[in-house]
Amino acid sequence: MSSLPQLIPDVDYLLHLEAEELAAALLIALRSQRQGGGVVHLTNFCSGLTSHPGHPASYSDTRRDQVIQAVTEAWNWLEVQGLLIPAPGTNGAHGWKAFSRRAEKMQSQEEIREFSRSRKIQKDTLHPRIADTVWSAFMRGEYDVAVFQAMKAVEVSVRQAGNFGAGDLGVDLMRKAFHEDNGPLTDKETEKSERQARSALFAGAIGSYKNPHSHREVDLRIPEEAMEIVMLANHLLRIVDARKPK
Predict the structure, then answer these.
(1) Is the full-model pTM beyond 0.90?
(2) Rounded-to-integer distance, Cα 112 and Cα 28, Å
(3) Measured between alpha carbons, how far apart are the two ends of the chain, in Å?
(4) CATH topology of domain 123-243
(5) Most distant CA pair in the chain: distance in Å?
(6) Other C-beta atoms within 10 Å of 117: how many?
(7) Which among 235, 224, 6 is positioned nearest to 120, based on CA atoms?
(8) How many Cα atoms within 13 Å fall on the side-chain side of residue 38?
(9) Which of residues 246 and 203 earns the better pLDDT score?
(10) What's the order of all strands across the beta sheet hosting 96-99?
(11) How far apart, in whole angstroms, are the C-alpha atoms of residue 120 and residue 198?
(12) Per-residue 3-state assignment (H helix, E strand, C coil) for 135-196
């Protein structure tokens, strides 16, 4: 059984954590302290945090208000993310919460931290071509799918904007579309070196992040890495929009 004071014994450290960081430990503590029917209650939980002065499973009463505020913020984060949901029946109406199906699967603080990191991608910042499919895959933790869908959208967008055929694919398509001399999407008003760099940018992105996912299983588990690749695709899509023939 792991109480919150056992997981985070240093009050100063606890108060230094952001809500989502504290939530990782809080959910683990709640897992081991659920009451009948697997439910938890914020007031009940907080009352036990300072009720045993000097005990290793309790915080000093002198910091009670600060601790409760921090725990309440972390609890609210868990609710907003759909990890704590209203308990069934009348219990839910009286503030009792149950673990969601996703929360039940989370067995460690690291799993919760990864979940938190995956939430940092904002749907409204994504290009309309990828906002729904890529964001949904990201929320499910399918980072390889999110990256593939994002780069595939770049390929399709370039093909359509440059009026290429279905047989034009991958790196070759990018080099044709952004060829420094005759590419339909190249910007003739820029220096030739810049046009060459733009062609290399698109070809490199597709060759590095779309083609491997097309030909083999790619193990992509780090949400920050996936997010960076998705945002690269997002930027490329906006470049294509700007280069579409008027």
Answers:
(1) no
(2) 9
(3) 65
(4) Four Helix Bundle (Hemerythrin (Met), subunit A) (1.20.120)
(5) 77
(6) 15
(7) 224
(8) 13
(9) 203
(10) 39-41, 96-99, 84-86
(11) 29
(12) HHHHHCCCHHHHHHHHHHHHHHHHHHHCCCCCCCCHHHHHHHHCCCCCCCCCCCCCCHHHHH
Q: Which residue has the tokens 């046009």?
A: 195
Q: At 242, is the secondary structure helix, strand, or coil?
A: helix
Return the structure tokens found at 106.
Answer: 């989370």
pLDDT digits (tens, 9 = 90+) for 145-195: 899 999 999 999 999 999 999 999 999 999 999 999 999 999 999 999 999
Kindly report, as residue ranges, where domains of CATH 1.20.120 are found in the chain.
123-243
pLDDT digits over 24-60, tens only? 899 999 988 888 888 999 999 998 887 555 555 668 7
How far is Cα 173 from Cα 240, in angstroms, rounded to an integer? 13
What sign for the dihedral angle of Cα 185, 189, 190, 196? positive
**How far is residue 146's CA from residue 167's CA, in Å, rounded to a whole number?**
24
Residue 63 structure tokens: 């910091």
The pair of structure tokens assigned to 58 is: 């309790």
Task: Bin 216: left if φ > 0, else alpha if -120 < ψ < 50, else beta.
Answer: beta
98 sits in which H/E element: strand 96-99
Host H or E run for residue 238? helix 223-243
